[in-house]
């Protein structure tokens, strides 16, 4: 399986975190776990269909998909060869660009609305056109930037203090533009930071707990298992999987 990350250019970078492709000519079905990373996506399958298990039952996916924020791990499985183009979007981009009610898309991967026109032949040019007029310095985007800058190790009260807005207002903004509460979003961001902290297969867990801002090791383990379904000591951080590709290409990993 070959993973590629492609950077957006120009004003497209306001909405797009990065574009990604996955190619694999091996048709053997392989199950991949997907874990929360704080971003939304638009996905196009040019190869064979994938199947998805969001709630304990496998279902065949369509080939043009929109994925909202996810709060828990789920599984994907190929049914043949893979040829995928993905657009990893900023947390609020779907709401800004297409006025999608993000609260309704949490933990959902749904067919892409045909009213959303994406030129897959030149996706970067398409998003450069879509992003003219993209809001500048919107408070929800400032809040997201603050949370990422703190690696998720910041309270909602401190985010509000930096923005000089009330917690209730911030809650409303996050529900509308992101779909999650600010507190849960910070949990995902701090969890994502673990993938930057861990640089070897057998790390010193006490150092990881401290650097990632957890109260103690049991708190860290509970949080990690909630998002991955696995004990951190049994998770293969260097394995070539979709989940690890996405977590290793997170902005937190490159800070």
Q: Care to describe what's here?
A:
The protein has 255 residues and is an alpha+beta fold. The protein has two domains: 2-130, Jelly Rolls (Sandwich), CATH 2.60.120; 139-248, Arc Repressor Mutant, subunit A (Orthogonal Bundle), CATH 1.10.10. Helices cover 34% and strands 20% of the residues. The strands form two sheets. The chain has a six-stranded antiparallel beta sheet, with no helix packed on it. It has a four-stranded antiparallel beta sheet with strand order 3-8-5-6, with no helix packed on it. β5 (50-53) and β6 form a beta hairpin. α3 (139-149) packs across α4 (156-163). The chain is globular.
Helical proportion? 25-40%
The CATH architecture category of the largest domain equals Sandwich
Return the string of H and E elements: EEEEEEEEEHEHHHHHHHH
How many strand units? 10
Which fold name corresponds to the CATH topology of the largest domain? Jelly Rolls
CATH superfamily of the largest domain: Jelly Rolls
Any idea how many domains? 2
Radius of gyration from CA coordinates:
18 Å
Number of helices: 9
CATH class of the largest domain: Mainly Beta
Briefly note the structural class of the backbone.
alpha+beta
- Approximately how much beta-strand content do the residues carry? 15-25%
In short:
The chain has helices spanning 93-98, 123-130, 139-149, 156-163, 167-177, 182-197, 205-211, 217-228, 242-248, and strands at 2-6, 16-24, 31-34, 40-45, 50-53, 58-60, 64-67, 74-78, 82-89, 109-111. It is α+β, with helices and mostly antiparallel strands and 255 residues long.
């Amino acid at each position: 399986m070959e993973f590629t990350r492609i950077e957006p250019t120009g004003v497209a970078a306001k909405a797009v975190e990065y574009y990604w492709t996955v190619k694999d000519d091996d048709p053997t079905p392989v199950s991949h776990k997907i874990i929360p990373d704080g971003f939304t996506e638009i996905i196009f399958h040019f190869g064979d269909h994938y199947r998805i298990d969001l709630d304990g039952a496998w279902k065949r996916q369509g080939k043009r998909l929109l994925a909202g924020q996810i709060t828990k791990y789920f599984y994907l499985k190929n049914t043949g060869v893979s040829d995928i183009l993905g657009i990893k979007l900023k947390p609020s981009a779907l709401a800004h660009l297409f006025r999608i009610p993000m609260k309704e898309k949490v933990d959902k991967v749904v067919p892409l609305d045909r009213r959303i026109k994406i030129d897959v032949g030149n996706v970067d040019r398409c998003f450069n056109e879509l992003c003219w007029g993209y809001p500048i310095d919107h408070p929800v985007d400032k809040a997201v930037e603050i949370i990422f800058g703190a690696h998720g190790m910041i309270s909602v009260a401190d985010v509000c203090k930096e923005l000089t807005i009330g917690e209730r207002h911030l809650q409303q903004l996050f529900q509308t533009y992101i779909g999650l509460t600010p507190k849960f979003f910070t949990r995902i961001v701090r969890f994502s930071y673990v993938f930057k902290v861990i640089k070897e297969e057998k790390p010193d867990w006490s150092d990881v707990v401290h650097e990632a801002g957890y109260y103690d090791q049991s708190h860290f383990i509970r949080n990690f298992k909630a998002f991955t379904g696995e004990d951190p000591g049994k998770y293969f951080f260097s394995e070539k999987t979709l989940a690890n590709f996405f977590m290793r290409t997170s902005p937190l990993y490159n800070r």
